[in-house]
Specification:
Layout lengths: L5 H33 L8 H10 L2 H4 L7 H6 L4 E2 L5 E2 L5 H32 L5 H12 L7 H14 L8 H9 L3 H12 L4 H8 L4 H12 L1 H16 L3 H6 L8 H4 L11 H11 L1 H20 L5
Antiparallel strand pairs: 1-2
Helix pairs in contact: 1-15, 5-8, 5-9, 5-12, 12-16
């Protein structure tokens, strides 16, 4: 039996807690700087001043001298009246961009989840000729990011737009269709989960007269809720934060997502740092809500998805 001295135990606890506190400060410091910028007056915030302030590690310098909610009013699409009576109107429709991001992320996430779950069950449980070659092909395709095909994607949907504007450039439908092509990695993830399920469940369901679809619907689908939550969260985060693909396909201001539209705050003519900081913080709100809803499934789902039979 190993007996640890109280002094050694206290020392270990002290270093462990100290490391965690320093780690949290390191992570939260950039977020604190962004919040500070969003509460400052005006939009004049040079990168040099930020570096200088951070270099001195002075918390007092990072705090806004005259805090204001002007940038937050504008981010929520509300007019703001300054102390001198000047009325400032929102420069860009941030809430519309957020709605576009949420809409595209949810629809594409549900689509990816549906296709990945059904395909993973088929690859895991149904006998398919050439199944190994298909899985290897999906794995190889996933090795090449979609950004490598941006030129081809632009040309394809530009041509489709001449036939049907619904599927052309500046269309959310076209963007969702491209996002659905990223389903291959999630098929492998869910397949690993299904491979870890005992085959006795399939046999018992078949003895009771269940079809493969009924086995999937009433047995495997309820069991796969944790890994499905993980896949949806990962897909949603990727879609809502995507910039390269969305910036190529989406052109009009009313169709932009928040990731693409936020770039307008930092253009070659002016840098609206305060407005950009408020919009950047708002962009993390949908992801936070999704995490809070799915957090009960994330830990078990992340571990179970790595199990292979």
């Amino acid at each position: 039996m190993i007996v640890e001295r109280p002094a050694d135990l206290r020392r270990k606890k002290f270093f462990a807690h100290g490391f965690m506190i320093c780690f949290l400060i390191l992570i939260m410091f950039p977020f604190f700087v962004i919040v500070s910028i969003s509460l400052r007056e005006g939009n004049a915030m040079s990168s040099a001043s930020l570096v200088s302030q951070a270099g001195w590690a002075s918390l007092a310098k990072l705090l806004p001298q005259n805090p204001t909610l002007e940038h937050w009013y504008l981010a929520f699409g509300l007019d703001y009246t300054r102390a001198d009576g000047t009325v400032v109107e929102p420069p860009y429709p941030v809430m519309l961009w957020m709605w576009n991001s949420i809409k595209i992320g949810v629809i594409a996430g549900i689509g990816v989840l549906s296709v990945a779950t059904i395909s993973a069950y088929a690859f895991s449980r149904i006998r398919i000729r050439g199944k190994a070659a298909l899985l290897d092909g999906l794995f190889l395709i996933q090795m090449f990011p979609t950004t490598l095909a941006l030129v081809a994607i632009y040309a394809i949907f530009d041509a489709l737009g001449e036939v049907s504007p619904f599927l052309g450039l500046d269309s959310h439908v076209a963007l969702i269709l491209i996002y659905l092509s990223g389903v291959t990695l999630h098929i492998w993830t869910i397949k690993g989960y299904f491979d870890g399920v005992d085959t006795a469940l399939d046999k018992a369901a078949a003895i009771d007269g269940a079809t493969p679809w009924q086995t999937f619907r009433f047995i495997f689908l309820p069991l796969a809720v944790p890994i499905m939550a993980v896949v949806f969260v990962l897909a949603f985060i990727g879609f809502i934060n995507d910039y390269p693909i969305a910036s190529v396909l989406i052109r009009s201001e009313s169709q932009m997502t928040l990731a693409v539209g936020s770039r307008l705050y930092l253009n070659e003519f002016r840098y609206l740092w305060g407005d950009f900081a408020a919009a950047a913080i708002l962009s993390g709100l949908p992801i936070t809500v999704v995490f809070l809803i799915a957090q009960r499934y994330l830990v078990s789902g992340l571990g179970d998805g790595a199990v292979k039979g």
